[in-house]
Amino acid sequence: MTLLQNQLHDAAASLVADFTKTSSYKNPNTNGSIKEDLIRKELMQRLPSGIEFGKGEIVDTFGNRTGEHDIVGYDKHFMPLFQSHGTISTFFSESVFCCVEAKSFLDEAALKDAKKKFDSIAQLKRVYEATSLSHYMQTVIGIGGFSGTLTIPGRDNNINVPKMVTAVFAISGLKNETISNHLITIKPNADLVCILDKGVWGRKHDSQQWICACDRPELTYYTFIVLLHELLHPHLLRHLYARVNLAKYV
User: Fold this and answer.
1) How many Å apart are CA 108 and CA 198, to the nearest integer?
2) Which of 23, 100, 141, 226 could tie 71 with a disulfide, CB 3.0–4.6 Å?
C-alpha cells in the first residue's frame, strides 16, 4: 500500500478501537452521540478545511425541513448556522455540502433509516444567485484586468448547484452480497455507502445502479475518502459562480 493508504488504514483501525471503547456506556443515546462525534472528528481531519461538521436539521427558503441528521458538512466561511440547543444546529440548505449517516452496524433496518433521512434531503430546494466571475477575480483573488462575466441561465438570474452529497458510514455490516442486494431493493438515495470492514459502494450518477468500488477492507477507508473528495469538488468551486441571498430566509 502507498503512504496515504497506510495512514488511512491506521486511522480506520484507530476509529474502530475507539468505537469498541464506547460499549461501556449503557445509555444508547450517549453511546450513539459519542460514536457520531468520533466519526465527525475523523472526517474533519480528512476533508478540506473549509468544511465544518455538525449535527441537526436542514431548512430551505420554501419552508421545507429535514429532521435531524447525524453528521452535516457545511460551509463555515460563507454561511452561518443557528444552534437550537447544545450541539444541535439548524443549517441553511445552501450552506450544506454533504450529509453522512453514522451506523455501528449496517443492516436492512439501518439502510431503510438512512433512506428516510436522505429522502427528506431530496425534497429541499437550494437557490443561488449568479455572481460576476470578474468581480470574484478582482476582489477575492486580487487579479485585476479580467473582463467579462459568467453567464448562467435561469429564471430571475437564479441557478441550481450540485445536489448535496449523501453517504452512509458504518463500522461493520452484513456480507457484501447481502448489502448489494439491499441497495438495489431499498434504493437509499445515497451517493456512497461505506462499511469499514467490508467495502465501499457508489451509485452511478442519477441512477439506482450500484457498483462495489472496493471490497478490500484494508483499502476501504482510503477509497471512501477519495470518492468523497471527488463528489465534493464541484461544491468547493461553487463560489466562483454563485452566492447565497440570506434575505430569502426572512
Assistant:
1) 15
2) 100
The sign of the torsion formed by the CA atoms of 237, 7, 37, 69 equals positive
Distance CA 187, CA 174 (A): 17
- The pTM for the full model equals 0.82
What confidence tens digit (pLDDT) does each residue in 55-112 have? Answer: 899 998 888 999 899 999 988 776 666 766 667 888 988 889 999 999 989 999 999 9
164 contact partners, CB below 8 Å, separation of at least 6: 93, 96, 97, 98, 99, 121, 124, 126
Instruction: Determine the residue type at 62.
Output: F
146 DSSP assignment:
-
**How far is Cα 114 from Cα 193, in angstroms, rounded to an integer?**
10
Where in the sequence is the domain holding 65, given as residue range(s)?
A: 3-126+161-243
- Domain presence at residue 136: no
CB contact set of 52 (below 8 Å; sequence gap of 6+): 44, 73, 74, 75, 76
